[in-house]
């Protein structure tokens, strides 16, 4: 059963184990509490990890430790995913609409809403999603977030 809702009305829907299609802070994406469901929706390898989206730095601290040298850099960065030394890729979302959804969870697994290694198709994304959350602006395909790998002594730009 597909559910289409507006951002303002999403507080009473149960999201556990569902694939959610929504406009993220960077691009149209799938969100879920279950990484296996996201792998199935994207038709990609189950062992390939997903990035984690959180709404606050307090939640990010529970998932991974930021090297002291880069803490202020991470706090000031916008729309950037960081790959931490423990191999977790985490993005702290500051966008208000996306943040409203993330507040209900410790974190959500996130990925772009397209089939693995293919271009975005709204028709495909709508078929794969259990729940679709649409803003008044609709969906817009934008560039993905940059990914920066943090180690104890250096940073590496991966995307």
CATH class group: Alpha Beta
CATH topology: DHBP synthase
Please identify the structural class as seen in this structure: alpha/beta
Q: Architecture, CATH level 2?
A: Alpha-Beta Complex
Listing every helix as H and every strand as E from the N terminus to the C terminus, the arrangement reads EEEHEHHEEHEHEEE
Mean pLDDT: 86
The Rg value, from CA coordinates, equals 15 Å
Helix content: 10-25%
Give the end-to-end Cα distance, rounded to a whole number of Å: 36 Å
The strand count comes to 10
Number of domains: 1
CATH superfamily: DHBP synthase
The proportion of strand residues reads: 25-35%
Low-pLDDT parts are none
Q: What can be said about the biggest beta sheet? A: 10 strands, mixed
How do the helices and strands line up, and which of them pair or pack?
Elements: E1 3-6, E2 20-23, E3 28-32, H1 35-42, E4 51-54, H2 57-63, H3 71-76, E5 81-83, E6 89-92, H4 96-102, E7 108-112, H5 122-128, E8 131-134, E9 147-150, E10 155-157
Parallel strand pairs: 1-8, 2-8, 4-6, 5-9
Antiparallel strand pairs: 2-3, 3-7, 4-7, 5-6, 9-10
């Amino acid at each position: 059963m597909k559910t289409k809702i507006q951002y303002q009305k999403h507080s009473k829907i149960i999201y556990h184990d569902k694939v959610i299609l929504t406009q993220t802070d960077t691009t149209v994406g799938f969100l879920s509490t279950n990484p296996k469901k996201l792998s199935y929706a994207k038709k990609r390898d189950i062992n390939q990890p997903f990035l984690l989206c959180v709404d606050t730095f307090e939640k990010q601290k529970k998932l991974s430790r930021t090297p002291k040298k880069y803490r202020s850099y991470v706090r000031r960065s916008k729309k950037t995913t960081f790959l931490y030394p423990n191999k977790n890729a985490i993005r702290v979302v500051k966008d208000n609409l996306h943040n409203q959804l993330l507040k209900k969870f410790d974190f959500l697994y996130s990925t772009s809403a397209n089939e693995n290694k293919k271009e975005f198709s709204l028709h495909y994304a709508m078929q794969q999603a259990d729940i679709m959350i649409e803003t008044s602006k609709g969906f817009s395909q934008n560039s993905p977030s940059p990914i920066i790998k943090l180690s104890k002594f250096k940073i590496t730009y991966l995307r």
